[in-house]
Amino acid sequence: MIWIDTIVQGILLGGLYALFAAGLSLVFGIMRLVNLAHGDLIVLGSYLILLLVSALGLHPFAAVLVAMPAMFLLGWSLQKLVLNRALGEDILPPLLVTFGLSIVIQNALQESFSADSQRVSAGALETASVSLGPVTAGVMPLLTFGSAILVILALNHLFYRTAIGRAFRATSDDAVTAGLMGIRPDRVFALATAIAMLVVTIAALYLGTRSNFDPSIGPARLIYAFEAVIIGGLGSLWGTLAGGVVIGVAQTLGAAINPEWQILAGHVAFLIVLLIRPRGLFPREA
Amino acid sequence: MTFLETQGLTAHYGDFQALFGVDIRLEPGETVAIIGANGAGKTSLMRSLTGVLQNAPGQILHKQEKIGHLPPDTVMKRGIAMVPEGRRLFPSLTVEENLIIGGQHKGGADLGDRIGSWLARLTGSSGPMDVAACRDGSGYWTLDTVYALFPVLHERRHTPGTALSGGQQQMVAIGRALMSNPEILLCDEISLGLAPVVIRDIYAALPLIKDSGASLIVVEQDISQALRVADRVYCMMEGRITLSGRPSEISREDIHTAYFGAAA
Asked: Has the keyword Nucleotide-binding been applied to this entry (chain B) (predicted)?
């Protein structure tokens, strides 16, 4: 029975990793941009929520609604003013720019909030749990997983059922020809990053309420996000959820065997999937 | 008023110069053919006309306005659409989505376009395009009229565009360009790589497109096909116009000389 409980906890943890990864997957799927600052942007979002909670006395779930428009604007401006200038045939400039951005964010957060670890209090929700038959699950992990499914559903709907989604896919396929259709690729990219930042803000909420965070933990979140995206298959949103679940289950199983193996087990699962299916579990057709 | 005109058009790819002082014009309701061998500069001319290659503003005029510096999306919103060489359908879109996306952005999300359109309506003048007409689908070309022109596309509307045969893909590419209800349609090598019977079907659609109110520029390597549909012909060689005139006024020897650079 304890194994079922462990697997369920792993699946729920996978929801958090899927949230870390969904924005990364969206941006990569549309503009083939690997954003090395993605993890730091999640941490930045957590600090913004912390600031809103402590300054305005808002509940974290209300603070996230205030943070979202700000993060949307940040994403749009970042892409429009900085990242679009680095995009092109050569993949190196965007990597260097986002690597630099990662360092800037970490240092700015350290300067502003110190290196001490912080946590956003979600009150009674933090300890609330529900019984699901033989398994007991925390309300926050359930909310996290539910949010991940809703985010993936919403992104899929946007991607495959709306005019904006058509423009996203067309620009991803062929930006020059998309221009001939009246599409401005630079604006499409800015909108995609802005939407990714909405997802980042949701991820930031759960990062901040479920664990301690400090300015230096962004790169580790980026690695989990990368692994989830690659396990799931580049550009596949449902694959990203599956990738998060694979890492989550591997980590909880590893921790059940030996607590020191938790992080290692996730990375090993990633390597095994890469060996068996190098293009991931559900790769998007080129 | 001349619809579209180039004046001493030059184009470069880095240090390589592809066009050398090209002068062409397109009058309302005309079909103009641009013929020439591989590497003559035909596609560079098309890329310049659509804004893919940037030029000096005054080298391209659309209704007397300088547009040589405008990006592709703005050129398209002025009513100039292109069927690109090699079709270039979007692989992740179905046939119907490929068609829809051809028209969905002509309405122009630009604030400037919207203000321009409102002002045009307020002042009773017509702008370079009617935004409202595009939005409500009141232009001639809609999904229904494109499907009527190419019925096979309706049957395969939920298929990925790139899963179709070459001829059907060309139909999608033409339909996609038509969905923006262009005043000017640029067709770049629409017969390239297609079987003769398919080329005949594709070319049979051009008069219908012209009757809908569009003026056409057709780029072709197939001289006889181009001469059959064109009101006027330009021949290009090595980035220059080497011959121009009405098909009835040009002899085969003239074309041969202008096309290959030597008399037959």
From this structure: yes
